[in-house]
Structure formats: C-alpha cells, structure tokens
C-alpha cells in the first residue's frame, strides 16, 4: 500500500441548528483509492489545483455537543483520519461544490476507519497505549522526517496539533505536553523512523545542510518580521512622536513600544537608513 505524506488535517466546526461540518485536505492523485477505506461518501468533494495533486472532502455531522466526552470522541475520529488517509491540513470553511449526498452523518458512522494495527504493524496497540492523538502525532512527525530528511521543527508539530484537534483551555497543556513528548523522543534518537517504512534517507552531510538551510530561512523570516515591525510606527501617521527634538529616531521609545531591545531597534534603523 502506498504511504502518502501526512502533513495535517483540516477541520472546522460551525454550528447551525446542531449540524456541523469538517473539511479535510488530502494529498494524492487517486481519490477513489484514498476513499476506499469503508468510509461514508463525503457530502462534497473538490479537486484542488496546484503543483501537487490534492482533494478536499467535507462531511456534515450531527450530534456534536461540545461536551468533554463528545470532544474526546470527536478528536479520536479526527486522529484516525490522520492515521488512515493522507491528510495534509485543516480547512476552516465549507466547500462550495455540488453535493455528492445530502445525508447528515453521525460520528459513530466513522468508526470503520482502519485500525492502527492494520496500517502500522510496529504498533503494539493495547489498552495502555490507545491514545490515538499520540499516535497521529508520531505519524505526522515521521512523515515530516521523510520529507525534510531529518530534523522537524517543534513549532510545526504544535501548530499542527492545535489546528487539528478540538482543545478547550484546560486541554491545551495536555496537548502541548504530548507534542513535546513525541518531539523529544525523535530528537533524542536523531530522527530515526519507528512506524513508517524506511525510505532513502539523506546522508549526515545532507541532513546538516537541510538543518542549516531551515535555520537560515527561519532567521531570515524573523529579521524580515522585525524590520516590518519597526517600519510600521516609523512610517505611520504618528511617526513624529517617535523622534527626538533633533529629528533622530528615539530608539528607546520605539523599543519600549514594540517590546524589542533598543540595540535591535538601532541596528535595523541603521540598516534601513532611517
């Protein structure tokens, strides 16, 4: 069976007289093969044009009440989608295509999603380790290890998890702890795969180059964000309020306003010739 890259799954909940929906973005070319998992027919299907073939599917559901128990059940269903299908991310809107079926589904109708054992023989699934969110996090990290050739930034794992699963305020610390636990496990083992079939891995030199490229990209994005942050008040309507009597920029005042170090402000003011 082909193992598709799993980046994230998309789900958005909008309530309308107890009828809600979730929309999933799937990566792959064979939609019929993707959906051949004993799943209900999606209410809507849409081809997403781009460099990589993708499909979006949407389901209408009923009976989701937002209680802790129903939220946990809903998250388990979402996690099983992540473990079964090549889910990429979570879409916060309904599809505007024609209906394939107008039926309203119940969460229990998605229990035909294949089990962990069916997809990942390496998992010794038992009542003590039946946390589906935990396993979906592991699969997500491993898919990224394959795509990136090693190192996976922690922030991407946490952003994916919070975008994927329903989490109230008191649940966020638990979800964050799971993200950290999974990420630490792979970081300590030099990003070795444990669930997915091993593919051609990059050499240590290539992995290091990938890490350095990613670090350089992150630093460049951070610098650009800081430049824009400093430029906004300097080019806005109240720019004169940040100047000294001499006409020079008051770096201390700007730093206080922007919650930055004065030395950082002076550095970028000099770079931007302001």
Walkthrough of the structure:
- Strand 2 (44-48) and strand 3 (54-62) form a beta hairpin.
- This protein has 2 domains: 19-201, no CATH class; 205-271, no CATH class.
- Residues 1-17 have low confidence and may be disordered.
- Strands 1, 2, 3, 4 and 5 form a 5-stranded mixed sheet that branches.
- It is an alpha+beta fold.
- Helix 2 (68-84) runs parallel beside helix 4, helix 4 packs across helix 6 (169-188) and helix 5 packs antiparallel against helix 6 (169-188).
- It has 9 helices and 5 strands; from the N terminus they run βαββαββααααααα.
- The longest helix is centred in the last third of the chain and has 32 residues, at 204-235.
- It has helices at 31-35, 68-84, 116-119, 132-148, 154-164, 169-188, 204-235, 251-258, 262-271; strands at residues 19-27, 44-48, 54-62, 87-90, 105-106.
- The termini are far apart.
Total domain units: 2
Largest sheet: 5 strands, mixed
Spatial separation of the terminal alpha carbons: 59 Å
Series of secondary-structure elements, N-terminal to C-terminal: EHEEHEEHHHHHHH
Structural class: alpha+beta
How many individual β-strands? 5
Uncertain residue ranges = 1-17
Could you tell me the strand content as a percent range? 5-15%
Globular, elongated, flat, extended or rod-shaped: what is the shape? globular
How big is the Rg? 23 Å
Share of helical residues: 40-55%
Number of helices: 9
What is the average of the pLDDT values?
A: 78
- This entry's quaternary arrangement is single chain
């Amino acid at each position: 069976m082909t193992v598709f890259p799993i980046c994230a799954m998309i789900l958005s909940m909008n309530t309308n007289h107890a009828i809600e929906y979730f929309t999933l973005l799937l990566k792959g070319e064979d939609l019929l093969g993707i959906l051949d998992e004993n799943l209900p027919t999606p209410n809507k299907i849409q081809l997403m044009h781009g460099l990589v073939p993708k499909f979006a599917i949407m389901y209408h559901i009923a009976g989701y009440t937002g209680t802790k128990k129903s939220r946990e059940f809903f998250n388990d269903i979402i996690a099983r989608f992540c473990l079964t299908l090549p889910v990429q991310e979570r879409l916060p809107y309904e599809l505007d295509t024609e209906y394939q079926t107008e039926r309203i589904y119940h969460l229990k109708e998605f229990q035909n999603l294949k089990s962990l054992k069916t997809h990942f023989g390496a998992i010794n699934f038992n009542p003590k380790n039946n946390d589906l969110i935990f396993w979906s996090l592991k699969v997500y990290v491993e898919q990224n290890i394959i795509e990136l050739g090693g190192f996976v930034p922690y922030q991407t794992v946490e952003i994916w998890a919070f975008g994927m699963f329903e989490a109230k305020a008191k649940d966020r610390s638990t979800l964050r702890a799971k993200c950290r636990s999974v990420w630490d496990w792979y970081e300590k083992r030099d990003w070795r795969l444990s669930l997915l079939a091993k593919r051609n891995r990059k050499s240590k030199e290539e992995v290091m180059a990938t890490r350095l490229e990613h670090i350089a990209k992150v630093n460049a994005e951070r610098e650009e964000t800081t430049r824009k942050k400093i430029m906004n008040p300097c080019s806005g309507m109240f720019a004169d309020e940040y100047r000294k009597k001499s006409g020079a920029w008051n770096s201390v005042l700007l730093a206080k306003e922007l919650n930055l170090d004065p030395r950082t402000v002076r550095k970028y003011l000099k770079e931007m010739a302001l």
